[in-house]
Amino acid sequence: MTHYKQLFSILLIIICTGFTHSAAQEIKDPSAPYSEPTLPQSVASSAWSSYKSGLNSSWGSTDIRYPQTLPPKDTQAKTLTLTAWQGERVNAQFVLWALKEMKNVTYTVSDLKTTKQTIRRKRRKITIPVSYISAATQITSGYVRYVWTDELNKDKKGGCGDRSDKTAWDSSLVADVIDPIQTIDIDKQTTRPGWITIQVPPTANPGTYSGTVTIKTAGEKDQKLNLQLIVKDHLLPEPEEWSFHLDLWQTPYAVARVYGVEPWSEEHFKVMRPYMTQLARAGQKVITASITYMPWNGQTEDPFNTMVTWMKKADGTWYYDFTVFDKWVEFMMSCGIDKQINCYSMIPWRLSFQYYDQATNSMKMMPLTPGRSEYNTFWGSMLQEFAAHLKAKGWFDITTIGVDERPMEQMREVILLVKEVAPDLKVSLAGNYHPEIEKDIYDYCITSGEKFPEEVKQRRDSEKKISTYYTCCAEAYPNTFTFSAPAEAAFIGWFALKGKFDGYLRWAYNSWTAEPLKDTRFRQWAAGDTYLVYPGYRSSIRFERLIEGIQAYEKYRVLKTEAEDKRDKYALKRLEEILNYIQWDLLPGEADEMVNKATKEMNKL
Description:
Blueprint lengths: L1 H16 L37 E5 L19 E8 L2 E10 L3 E8 L2 E2 L3 E5 L2 E5 L3 E2 L5 E11 L22 E8 L3 E4 L3 E10 L7 E10 L6 E13 L9 E4 L3 H8 L6 H16 L4 E5 L18 E4 L5 E4 L1 H12 L5 E5 L7 E6 L4 E6 L5 H21 L5 E6 L3 H14 L4 E5 L12 E5 L6 H9 L3 E5 L15 H13 L4 E4 L32 E2 H26 L2 H11 L11 H14 L1
Parallel strand pairs: 2-14, 15-26, 16-19, 17-20, 19-22, 22-23, 23-24, 24-25, 25-26
Antiparallel strand pairs: 1-3, 3-12, 4-11, 4-13, 5-8, 6-7, 9-10, 9-12, 10-27, 13-14, 17-18, 20-21
Helix pairs in contact: 8-9, 8-11, 9-10
């Protein structure tokens, strides 16, 4: 029996990791300094003729991806004012540019402080002490780095299709990576943005806070940019309390490849933790689990393996091992993501299922079609054991059988089988809206161009079902490609409000390309489609602006609840008027104007 367990442990490694050895490996360090890609052509000097030979600095806009080889236009702001709620996360972007090469350009961000205030209350003078928002613990920052990107399809209607020939696409360098470093060299006649994120403490006193960003380099006078933050007397709940249903699919296999570690080893979980904690802080609700081999037919750089081991024993019965699945779920819950588990997929993109055959001591693939007796037999046994396992772990009520963009007829067959074999096990679907099966879908995510009928959405809300929308390579706008306007990412949260959706799904949080820190282009979709964050625990302009839109959704919900409780008709009317700024038909050109107007008006309430 001991010998059998040893053999089965080896089998688990082969099936669930793809590795044939278990020797410890040296962890690569993607957080180490790296060199950006460079443009082959020389910089045209005429655009720089009006600038002095020293270093220039200004506050910029978070709506702009500043070109590397051009000076920023009409940018001379030395003071920036931001508005935030208690507990909110807000962003700022500054811009540096130089006519000549500058070495070791360093910036520092000071604490943000209030001034002492003296007020009269009942004939007494009261001094309110200075409050701090500490740069050491509440403010993160970094220089913005450049990566290769491409463009929409030639018809400008989306970004799906073969892109294996990179020369067929208009490629360029674009600002996106937020690298948490404070010193960098700035090449001759180039621009370098910097990004600041302020996490306002929930305990921060309302008021105006002031600080500075100081830029230093040898041979130049220090430059200062003034920063003011107005903290409103409103509290944004902690991310785990947000109602917005965020579902960004995780790819643990990409992390293993980039860090050079064995999947599911202690080292693997260690290097994954900061990424998944960062995702939890964005309000993520769902754990992405793969319970079959390559549910999406290996379309990404790192194919999804199965987290469940399927074995057909010599006597013809089935054995399932959930060890890896359990480790993954428990790990994700420890990172703060614990509201839902979506398991993919009973309908993979290639209808063929891998398993280990004990009789022949080999891996086999079995082609099966939903609705056929062979399919029902294959999945019936597994669903029974899986449901029992989930109940034993206490996860049954939060688990769904997830399906992605599959035909309605196949979905109907899967629903019938799940109802028969594992009653009460939920089903989720990301795909087109099908009224024929809508009632049987617990978590239904439809395309951005569709809507749930009003009466259907009301019923789903009463049944506590989840109704969201998604974007992928098919949508030209809004999107989170590396060439997309940054405001489009924020627009996503605002549009969820406008369309009365419960949240948003994007298929790839970290499905990294071969060289993710340098080249976001991929062989099948528009650049940036496969990931939102970068190796080395680096965020991106797109990810930060996406969080901004999610926070707007939550702020709106808080204000609406307060107005309804107080029966404040004026506030309710103003909230409705704010949503009128959000118009799908005005994309892409006015994304920043719509988001900025809506944000400004909401911050007045």
